[in-house]
Fold this sequence. Notes:
flat, alpha+beta, two-stranded antiparallel ribbon
Amino acid sequence: MSRDLLILLAPGFSDPARPGRRFFCPDCNRVEGVLASNPGLADRITVRRVPFPRPRAEVVALLGPDNRRRIA
């Protein structure tokens, strides 16, 4: 049986337009909180954290280049 895949932005990323600062995706942080408070959930799904910069090659590779505009 294949497991569902959850892709999150890796926390603590930087923005080249704002050097010296670290950022967190608010939506990803909420999901990270759900995963932390429900340890069994992370055992039932695959969680991948991808770097912030675009294009997000790992996501494009998973979903295919035809979906690139929507995902990367």
